[in-house]
Amino acid sequence: MKRLQKCRVRLTLAALMSMTASLSQATDLRSVVEKTIVSNPEVRFRFHEFRSSAEETGIGRAGYLPTVDVSYTSARENNKEPLVNYGPQVTSDFNRKGWSADLSQNLFQGFQTMNTVKQLEFGKRGKYYEFVDASEQLGLEATRTYLDVLRYRQLLDYAKESYGVHKGIYDQIEQKVKAGVGRRVDLEQAAGRLACPRPI
Q: Residues of the signal sequence (predicted)?
């Protein structure tokens, strides 16, 4: 009878685990995988790396565009110059302020800009494939987990059904033994089968 109680405890635990693992509403595999991928931090990290590399490609393309450098200067200067060799020095102080703007267009840098853009494009493509790989690996893992949950639920249903059948047989044999018609060995064998019903 101890085996029977252990089996009941196991079935109860399996049922509780099944209930906690079940979702509040019926969901299909596609929505489970999608939710898992969208909410995973590793996939988000890979996606943001891909977006970052796309922006870097835009920075590389800036080599084709003209550049404008604007600067403002403000200074005070002191000049001491002799009027003649070995003569008295003349000191002049003045303030300098000014703006300057330089516009330049790159004409040719030995294909540096073109090669930089190509390099950044390949880097972007690599980041994209890393993002896709992380998504697919997580999707595969989520699919396996989802299918395992379905399989274990089915096994639990089989175990419950098997337990019900064995319980009915055990009760019938127990009645026969109490009535003096059945053998005690048959009751012990039925109790053993009832202890751990397994699906075929």
A: 1-26
